[in-house]
Amino acid sequence: MKLIVAVVQDKDSNRLSNALVERDFQATKLASTGGFLKAGSTTFLIGIKDEETDAVLDIIKNHCKSREQLVAPVSPMGGNADSYVPYPVEVQVGGATVFIMDVERFEKF
Hints:
Elements: E1 2-9, H1 10-22, E2 28-33, E3 40-48, H2 53-63, E4 66-71, E5 89-94, E6 96-102
Antiparallel strand pairs: 1-3, 1-6, 2-3, 4-5
């Protein structure tokens, strides 16, 4: 068995959740926050059989797209003002960060 932990942007969360349900994959959704942009994200915990890994990865890949977004920088309160950029910066957001782990044992009560 495998445990897939997928961290996705909130904008992709519902599409991914619906696609997983459509293909009969059960997942637990957890609200999370990204460290870089301090923006909302969703973490999916998906337990699957080994042979289902590629199918789940394809679903994630097809429903979690990266995109460009303008981000207003946070002022460096007490930090070094030399590296502070006072205007919005375009960064790439979205997509998915996926971790795949072997599961030794699984119980469902």
